[in-house]
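Note to self: keep these together.
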Amino acid sequence: MGWTIDRLAGAAAFRDEAFEYLGRREAEHNIFFGVTLDTIRDPGRYPNDNYFAVARDEADGTVGGAAFRTPPHPPVLSLVEEPAVARRFAEDLFADYGPDIGGLNAPNETGPIFRARFDAICADGGSWELGMAQRIYSLDTVVPVTGVEGRLSPAARGDRDVLIGWLIDFQLEASSRSTVDAAMRATRLVESALEHDEAFVWRVDDEPVSMAYARGPTPHGIRVSLVYTPGGKRRRGYASACVAALSQRMLDEGRTFCFLFTDLSNPTSNHIYQEIGYRPVCDFSQYRRIRPGR
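Structure:
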C-alpha cells in the first residue's frame, strides 16, 4: 500500500477531509479539533503560512493520518494507519520547512517513526530534545469533590485582568516563553474566551481563586485546559473542585466526554485528575529539534 500526502487549502478544508478519521480516536486527537476550529473561528490567531494535510491511500483515497502546523509552532502528528504514513509526513514537512521544523508534537506511537525519517532526510546531525512528556486523559463520569469552599461560575468581564495575569504566570511557569509574548498571547486568549463563554473560575466569597477553560470542542466532547491557581491559594483543593465542577457542567450540557493534557513531570496534577474520574488514554510528547551549533 502506498500513501500520498494531500495538502489542504486551510483549516475548513482540513475539517471536511480529516475530522471523520480523527473522530475514530477522539480523545487522542482532541487537540486537532480545537486548533482547527480556533483557526476557522479566528483566522488572525495563526496568521502565518499554515500547513494542514492528510495522508491518503493511493489505491482508494481513504485517509490514514493527519498533520498540521501553525508556524512558528512545531507540527502536530496524529495516530496513523501504518508507520509509512508517519514517514511520508516527515518527508513532506521537510520539503516545506527544511531543517527549521522547530520540533514535533505527537503520540508516542508515531513520534519516533517521524523523527527517525526526518533525521535520515535532513542529515544535518541535529538532535531531538524532549520538551514535555504529556498524558491525555478522558472522563465520562465525575467523582465529585467535597469539602472545598466556593463555587464554579463562568468568568465575567470584570475578571479579565485577573485572568490575563494568571494566564501570563501559567505560561511563564510552564515554558520559556518571553514575558512580552506571554502577555500578548494571554490577552488575545482571554478576550476570545470571554467572548465565547469558555473561561470559568472558582469563587470564594465572590473572589476568583482558581481558573479552568473548556475549549476545543470535539464531536462528542471538549477539552479542559489552562487550569491554574495562584501561589497564595494553592493546596486548598480549589483546582480539583474547579475541574470537577467544570467537567460535570460540560457533561450536563450534553458532552459525552471531557479531555485534558497533563505534564507527566507533575505527579500532583496527574493524581488529582484521576481522583475526580479522569482515566489515561495515551502518552503524547513535545520535542524540540536542535540543529548543530545552536
